[in-house]
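Notes from the 1:1 (GR / supervisor)

We went over the backlog. Supervisor wanted to see one worked example end to end before approving the batch request, so GR pasted a single chain during the call. The sequence is below; no edits were made to it. Supervisor asked that the structure be written out right there so they could see what the output format looks like.
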Amino acid sequence: MNNGRVWRVTWRTADVARFFAIGALFVFAWKFFWLVYSALLLVLLAVLLAIVIHAPARMLSRWIPFQAGLALSVFALLAALAWLAVLVIPQVADQVMQLAAELPGALQSATTWLDEKTGGIPNGQLATRLTQEVSEFIGRFVPLAYNAIAALLGSLVLVVLAIFLAAQPALYRSIVLSLASPERQHLWARAYDEAGRTLRNWVLGKAATMLLVGVITYVGLLLFRIPGALALGVFAGLMKFIPNIGPTIGWAPAVIAAFLISPATAFWVTVFYFLQGQVVNAVTVPLIEHRAVDIPPAVLLIWQLMLAVGFGALALFVATPLLAVIVVVVRVLYYEPARARQAWDRRERPIIGGGRPAGYENPS
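Structure output shown during the call:
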């Protein structure tokens, strides 16, 4: 009983100041995050690139010192980037410009062919305007996409950061574990190791799939004599990095370009992309990628849409590995300990002398 007393909650000046300080800190952190989220996405890309560097060096360390293997791996990466910059990217850029110039005409041919097959479009002005808008969009988007990819590949800061991360992985692991309390460091260590293993398996599997898709696309489009086959093959391979959405984006320019030859060629190119996608999804993806990251497609698609709307197109490239890391961390740090505590609470404790369960303490 409170004996008629009225309890009042009072705020001291220090409490008010602390409340507003925490609120201001939260607002500052939120604003700062929106200013630097692009840099955080690039850091995650650097982590993925570091895995590509570290995996061969780790394999070579069975026969040679790790530092020597790392030097060979870095040299191979720099040689590949130089090859792209000197030989491939200029050729791809020329084919992209040619493709961008021819795509509007191809789209007009596709529209005319569709008009003939369907018996005409009632509103011809609307169709012309739609064709013009889509043509202008494609003409601007394709060079912009390739310029962005070339700039990303040539980013010196990204490569240097990836080399630093690959050279001393144990150092950064210890830094992350030092943020945890001593009694939870074993859980953090397990989460870190499992997340790293998941990312490594996914990155290597994805790289193999991208290379396979790029080569098959390039060879197939050469057989169909599609203009810009190398550019379209590189584009299809890079778009394979983005699950669900990427392959659809990858085949659209090739099908439109095929209308420059004939509608029949466009049809067979569509069949070629469809069969290629079925083979890749049925064979290589389950054998290579799903062993590393097994996320339901609907969940992954929703996650991709959320990141794309919130953070732009760059987030699509890191959506899958980021979700994989989040799943591992939540499972190891929260889900499994919670299940273990529930199992312990349901366990029947043995009764000892005095009729009290083992581990019982008198609350008094």
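Supervisor's comment: The longest strand covers residues 351-352.
Batch request approved.
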